[in-house]
Design brief:
Its EC number is 1.3.5.1. The chain is globular. 37% of the residues lie in helices and 16% in strands. Helix 1 packs parallel to helix 12 (433-455), helix 4 packs across helix 12 (433-455) and helix 14 (485-499) packs antiparallel against helix 15 (506-524). With 636 residues, it is α/β, with parallel strands linked by helices. The protein binds flavin-adenine dinucleotide.
Length: 636
């Protein structure tokens, strides 16, 4: 069977915000660049992003600046973030948003014509640049328009619009290829990527010395999720299989507000903008319960009465924000507790009400997608009645360990940006910080890949043996009449939801790991016999390898981390431990690829000028005595 072959300098896997921004950068730096995506071009999670992109532009409150944004991001991540990434992100996000404007994006405006910014959980000032509740759509539209503009330029210069940047859509990558010649170092070097066309099942090979992973999240390992079908952790698994490390995999963000009814739409996201724009959470007794759940570390920043919380929407200088706007992990846990205590709504969530808080026309103006979503999917008019909402698996903080400045992974030639990379958000991501992360680190990954290619002395070679292994692996499920892959997938989703969900216990996570082991064996035997033409059973059979690997990482890291922090809550270890904050958990694969190993790695201490941005009283809630002594010495 023929394998279609292409040669590029940089192959970007993923066409969400991170992938497109990386590809634009690589092309702008003169590299022949391919963009490969398993869904249609433009259909990525980025397009679904609603609330906005966080960037300290100070348009709505001039007190905002990168230092406040940096502090908020570190607090949101409970100080486990890669501080260099958080610093670069806070400093560069405004430029990336302005750059989008210069490429044609149309953000909502303030009365005086600046880019408007909205409130979101954990952000001290209104910071999210937005377009109604359809920000991701505008972001993707603009980046795609930029790709087309570059292609038009190439047509003029080279007579071929696809000479320097070409999109391969509905094309799934299943393996990264490496040249193991010792001249490239002990880890070998990337030489290409292998995959298949979803539509006709034909095989495809990219010969390229640099790969940027921008494949997004892993939500499809859980039953209740805001993620769509593509998010099977492919990039995470591809990186592991290529010899790179994943970090922070125990930290999964359960967004507090997903739809809970009807069952067919369970998990679909209800944007945080509903709360940012005044929506409140109530239990079945009508109580605004979030006031009972303000943790000690956040007491100083949040209102303790409904009156103060309500005043904050119009006078932020003299009031503290309402606790509905606590970081997502706090709100998700609170909803979970209310439902468990029997104070939930009839369909097992709580009530989110904006109807009594804003005039109807204003709700439709500010939250058009939410209005449409509830009307169409649940027959609920959010201008007249409350929504029922509950936590949904939304985002993975963990991902490929990368160098903050270049987005390079441990394997030469491999780069990662966006949700597939790890570190930036620590143990919990603030809303709005993903869209800005994609732009900041997408650009850096494209630049990192281009500069790596410039520095190469010889082009790493594609090994024909590796191609033949990748081909055999890809075609295997078609040649078996084994178990239905959907059975294995459903069992994995249930296992992860029930045993490695919001609240975790040692026995349950251990049980999940035993199940994952058995599912790994079953996955070896799944079959999708039949045609290669649009065979979704075959596609799922291949995706299963990735979801199982990622789930093993999540469960193993969750078992090891004996504390509760951000997106990892251990019932048996309820508090945050300063000792654990200094540790990162690193997942890797054993050389034979059969098992995930997890080991502790010490997190480098924060640079002096950055740690000095925090108050001692706040720091002492998070850091060890030794770190505090070092901080005191700095202050002298
Ligand atoms: P994605 O946009 O997820 O794109 C991944 C790409 O990789 C896709 O093109 C996919 O086809 C491709 N891909 C995956 N696997 C393969 C493979 N094997 N081969 C080839 N291609 C592959 N964040 C915010 O900051 N603000 C918000 O308001 C916000 N709202 C959100 C609303 C929803 C409903 C969801 C689900 C998320 C939201 N987020 C928000 C999070 C944010 O949208 C995502 O984290 C972000 O878009 C991820 O971008 P990305 O570029 O990393 O990947």
């Amino acid at each position: 069977m023929e394998i279609e072959r292409h040669e590029y300098d940089v192959v970007v896997i993923g066409a969400g915000g991170a992938g497109l921004r990386a590809a634009i950068e690589a092309r702008q730096q003169g590299k022949r660049t391919a963009i490969v995506c398993k869904s249609l071009f433009g259909k990525a999670h980025t397009v679904m992003a609603e609330g906005g992109a966080a960037a300290a532009m100070g348009n709505v409150n001039s007190k905002d600046n990168w230092m406040v944004h940096f502090r908020d991001t570190m607090r949101g991540g409970k100080f486990l973030n890669n501080w260099r990434m958080a610093e670069l992100h806070a400093k560069e996000a405004p430029d990336r948003v302005w750059e989008l404007e210069s490429w044609g994006a149309l953000f909502d405006r303030t009365k005086d014509g600046k880019i408007s910014q909205r409130n979101f959980g954990g952000h001290e000032y209104p910071r999210l640049a937005h377009v109604g509740d359809r920000t991701g759509l505008e972001l993707i539209r603009t980046l795609q328009q930029r790709v087309v503009a570059l292609q038009q330029e190439d047509e003029k210069l080279h007579g071929d619009p696809e000479a320097y940047i070409k999109v391969f859509q509905e094309c799934t990558v299943t393996r990264l290829l490496k040249d193991m010649n010792p001249a490239h170092g002990p880890n070998g070097a990337i030489s290409g990527a292998f995959g298949y066309w979803r539509e006709n099942g034909k095989l495809i090979l990219f010969d390229a010395p640099a790969i940027v992973l921008a494949t997004g999240g892993i939500g499809k390992s859980y039953v209740v999720t805001s993620n769509s079908w593509e998010y099977t952790g492919d990039g995470h698994a591809l990186a592991l299989l290529a010899g790179a490390n994943l970090i922070n995999m125990e930290f999964i963000q359960f967004h507090p507000t997903g739809m809970v009814w009807p069952p067919s739409v369970r998990g679909i996201l209800v944007t945080e903008s509903v709360r940012g724009d005044g929506g409140v959470l109530r239990n079945s007794e009508g109580k605004r319960f979030m006031f009972d759940y303000i943790p000690e570390v956040f007491k100083a920043q949040y209102a303790t009465t409904e009156e103060e919380g309500d005043r904050w929407y119009t006078d932020q200088a003299n009031n503290r924000r309402p606790p509905e706007l606590l970081p997502r992990d706090e709100v998700a846990r609170a909803i979970n507790s209310e439902v468990k205590a029997g104070r939930g709504s009839p369909q097992g969530g709580v009530y989110l009400d904006v109807s009594t808080r804003l005039p109807s026309a204003e709700i439709i103006r500010r939250l058009p997608s939410m209005h449409h979503q509830f009307k169409e999917l649940a027959d609920v008019d959010i201008t007249k009645e409350a929504m029922q909402v509950g936590p949904t698996c939304h985002y993975v903080m963990g991902g490929v360990e990368v160098d903050a400045d270049t987005a390079a992974a441990a394997v030469p030639g491999l780069f990662a940006a966006g949700e597939v990379s790890g570190g930036m958000h620590g143990s919990n991501r603030l809303g709005g910080n993903s869209l800005s992360d994609l732009l900041v680190f997408g650009r850096r990954a494209g630049a990192g890949a281009a500069s790596y290619v410039n520095g190469l002395e010889g082009r790493p070679k594609v090994s024909e043996e590796a191609v033949s292994d990748a081909k055999a692996e890809a075609l295997a499920p078609l040649q078996r009449a084994g178990e239905n892959p959907y059975e294995v997938h459903h069992e994995l989703q249930r296992t992860m939801n029930e045993l490695v969900g919001i609240i975790r216990k040692e026995e349950e996570v251990s049980e999940a790991l035993e199940s994952v082991e058995k599912l790994k064996e079953r996955a070896q035997g799944v079959g999708a016999a039949g045609s290669r033409i649009y065979n979704p059973g075959w596609h799922l059979a291949l995706d299963l390898r990735n979801m199982l690997l990622v789930s093993e990482c999540v469960a193993k890291a969750a078992l090891l981390r004996q504390e509760s922090r951000g997106g990892h809550t251990r019932d048996d270890f309820p508090g945050m431990s300063p000792e654990w904050r200094t540790k990162i958990l690193l997942c890797a694969l054993t050389p034979d690829g059969s098992e995930v190993t997890v080991e502790e790695k010490v997190q480098p201490p924060m640079r002096d000028d950055l740690i000095k941005l925090f108050d001692r009283d706040e720091l002492k809630k998070y850091i060890t005595e030794k770190e505090l002594a070092a901080f005191d010495a700095l202050a002298k």
